[in-house]
Amino acid sequence: MTAFLPSSLARLLLAAGLVCALASAPAHAQSEASAALSLLPLASVVGTASAGAALSGAVVVVPAALSVGGAVLTVKSVEASARGTVYVLERASDGAVASVEVAGRGVAASAYGIGTAVACSVISTGVVLSVAGEVLAFVPNALGRALLHNERL
Amino acid sequence: MARTTIPLTALALAALLLAAAPAHAGRSCEARKPTTQLIERGMQLAQQTAAALDAEHARSGTRVVVLGRAGQDLGKYGLRYSHLGWAYRTDAGPWRVVHKLNECGSAVGHLYRQGLGEFFLDDLWRYEAVWAVPTPEVQQRLLPVLEDSARARTLQHAPYSMVSYAWGRKYQQSNQWALETLALAMEPDSVRTRDQAQAWLQFKGYAPSVLKIGALTRLGGRVGAANIAFDDHPSEQRFADRIETVTVDSVLAWLPRASLASKPVVFSVKY
């Protein structure tokens, strides 16, 4: 298993969309009064260690540290960024590391401190990172990225 | 004109509205986190729907479909689907959906262009997609409208009520925008307003669903949620408890009848 050194990390930019309340779903009689904003805390993977260059450096390969389903990662550091919160995650089994940037209000930075265990679930369209059953972010692979787009007209 | 009449008991809707009341209180866009399973299933439905639409494109050259989802159980009202939008295949390949959404139970709705992922990442009642393939002429007329945000917004009307009167202009729910925009695309020279779009729809024989909703329930709905209103319905119909609104099921029934699209195709993922 490839262990990533911090200097060669792929950065994940997690543009976590505002998670919109759907608890009111039963009231929707006809056309849904539902989520304009995706439920999905969307992620994109970038191939640079610079969070600032994240958007332009997007790549479609999920980093090795997040490539094994069922793996458990640990939050090594948490810091605020211009877009949200950057988490550095380390895989318990071999020390492989990846950084994720969670943007927006979808995830409260204070909710996940250093030492928090993050589960890694690999699905056909990407990787779901979760903490105690709550989704931290979705990191889509190439297949997943082709299915995602969110633009208000 | 054939109409779909849907008995909706006051008690049933009142119960639904009461159940929803806490979520509507304050109308904030409170965070509700998705589960891993919801993401996996929603993305799987999106992926498989994309594959099916790609196959349809390869087979027939289809570029535009009307696409529906089942965001909630409306079976007791005789409805199978809750929301629709226009999906089109981009030149680059991926499908995008242009549809109207009501943000977090507020009194307004806006247009979005989204991927199939976002479209199906709602908290679905059934993991099922339904689509109908418009005739080549309808596709040809709709595609440039969907690709052009300004044209897509032409008949967008922000004030939103989920049970807006099908032939009214005060509010506009999601399915209503989609249908009126079809009229706009089909008759660009003569349809420039919602009135004109609705006149075209009536001329083409579109029949909205008719919900039977009593006074007590209407009152509860208006008080309990910002996105439910009945004051746009004609008094004589409202007081007869007849609420006519645009539903996915009525659109899917009408399109083939008007020779505008194929019969609907259903695709579901079983769990």
End-to-end C-alpha gap of chain A:
44 Å
What is the mean predicted local confidence, pLDDT of chain A?
64
Radius of gyration of chain A over all CA atoms, rounded: 16 Å
What composes the largest sheet of chain B?
A: 6 strands, antiparallel
Which shape of chain B, going by the Cα principal axes? globular
Brief sketch in words of this structure:
The complex is a heterodimer of chains A (153) and B (271). By secondary structure, chain A is mostly beta strands.
Structure characterization notes:
The complex is a heterodimer of chains A (153) and B (271). Chain A has one helix at 142-146, and strands at residues 11-14, 44-46, 58-59, 72-80, 84-91, 97-103, 117-123, 126-131, 134-140, 150-152. With 153 residues, chain A is mostly beta strands. Chain A has one domain (8-18, 37-146). Chain A starts with 10 loop residues before the first strand and ends with a strand. With 271 residues, chain B is α+β, with helices and mostly antiparallel strands. Chain B has ten helices and nine strands. Chain B has helices spanning 10-24, 36-60, 116-120, 136-147, 149-152, 174-186, 194-203, 215-224, 235-238, 248-257, and strands at 4-7, 64-70, 83-89, 95-102, 109-115, 126-132, 209-212, 242-245, 265-268. In chain B, strands 5-4-3-2-6-9 form a six-stranded antiparallel β-sheet, sandwiched between helices. In chain B, a hairpin with a 6-residue loop joins strand 4 and strand 5 (109-115). In chain B, helix 4 (136-147) packs across helix 6 and helix 6 (174-186) crosses helix 7. Chain B starts with a strand and ends with a strand. At the A-B interface, strand 8, strand 9, helix 1 and strand 10 of A face helix 1, helix 2, strand 4, strand 5 and helix 3 of B.
